[in-house]
Design brief:
about 350 residues; alpha/beta; Arc Repressor Mutant, subunit A; Rossmann fold; 2 domains; seven-stranded parallel beta sheet; four-stranded antiparallel beta sheet; 13 strands
Length: about 350
């Protein structure tokens, strides 16, 4: 197939541009459907006329259905996307990017999706879709799954599609609350995962803004001790990776702490730890959650983060990430990371 596609592109060079555009639009329909013409055009960067032409073409090929509530992908459309995926991954260069990062970072796998989360809102959804497929592919029945907060992890549940019974899955918050957006809190996201999978969840209410005295008292509470024990049984962790200064802002960190993070050259944050470019933890916040020694023993680790602005943060965490880690990222971050590693 590889050589056939190369030969065809030599003869008809515009073919790959057309193929990639139609593939991208069909992917957006699968991701957002049912979706209207206008939002689809905005996601794909197409004019209204171009979007209408594309819709008609995909409908005639029986790849999408069009109804009053919007467009949805057909089973045949899903089969076409799945069949084309290996070719598109290789032709776009994303497979090469993923392989280079996997080798450089020394982790289990890397998946690179199209776009840059910093400038394309739809890319965040593509990250969520890719992470959901990776999760469904690797998860087994009766697993305990810990999830962190953040917009990247929050994008995953909407795309989870488990055909078999998953009622034995238990989702737990990997840490306490961060920031003011309730929808991006680990507790809420854990509940969203449980709803998507038909499983259950165990809430964990711990505000990170507690004083030292309140923190010490809180960690002795029976419910907290039970959660800490539960972290030893976690089989899967899905987590984001934050930019150090951005996370400090979200937490309302003091000026003194922010200056300290700059002096220690903190680049990324995960699980309450701030890492420098070498993966060394230069600061740890006062929190209760899953610990790094527990993470090392987790069989399935899925990290999800994208956007070129996150490249340094991702590299800082991945410098010492457990070898079983699977990274889901986008082209914006992947290209920047490869450039920094060469």
């Amino acid at each position: 197939m590889k050589y056939s596609m190369e030969a065809q592109s030599k003869l008809v060079p515009e073919m790959m541009d057309v193929l990639q555009e139609r593939y991208r639009v069909l992917t957006y329909v699968e991701m957002a459907g049912p979706v209207g013409r206008r939002p689809l055009g905005e996601m794909a960067g197409l004019s209204e006329r171009e979007t209408r032409t594309m819709m008609d073409l995909l409908r005639k090929q029986q790849l999408i259905d069009i109804a009053k509530n919007g467009m949805t992908i057909t089973n045949e459309g899903k089969e076409v996307l799945e069949s084309l995926k290996p070719t598109m991954e290789q032709w776009s260069g994303r497979l090469s990017l993923a392989n280079r990062l996997k080798a450089s970072l020394g982790i289990h796998a890397v998946k690179v999706v199209a776009g840059n989360s910093d400038i394309d809102v739809a890319t965040k959804s593509l990250l969520g879709m890719a992470a959901a497929k990776m999760f469904v592919t690797h998860i087994n029945k009766g697993e305990t799954v810990a999830v962190t907060g953040g917009s990247s992890v929050a994008s995953i549940p909407a795309y989870i599609d488990i055909e078999n019974d998953a009622s034995n899955l238990l989702f737990v918050a990997a840490r306490g609350g961060v920031g003011q957006d309730i929808g991006l809190q680990a507790n809420v996201i854990a509940a969203s995962f449980a709803e998507a999978c038909g499983g259950s969840y165990s809430p964990f209410y711990y505000p990170e803004s507690l004083s030292a005295e309140a923190h010490e008292a809180f960690r002795k509470d029976p419910s907290v001790l039970k959660m800490i024990d539960l972290y030893d049984e976690v089989d899967c962790v899905l987590h984001g990776i934050g930019d150090a200064q951005t996370m400090a802002t979200m937490r309302g960190s003091s000026e003194e702490e922010r200056v300290m993070l700059k002096k220690t050259e903190a680049k990324g944050e995960a699980f309450g730890y701030y890492f420098n470019r070498y993966g060394e933890a230069v600061h740890r916040i006062r929190t209760i959650g899953i610990q790094t020694d527990q993470i090392e023993r987790v069989p399935l680790l899925i990290s999800i983060a994208g956007g070129s602005s996150k490249a340094e943060a991702i590299l800082s965490y991945m410098a010492t990430a457990p070898k079983q880690t699977i990274l889901i990222t986008d082209e914006g971050a992947a290209i920047d990371m490869v450039n920094r590693l060469t």
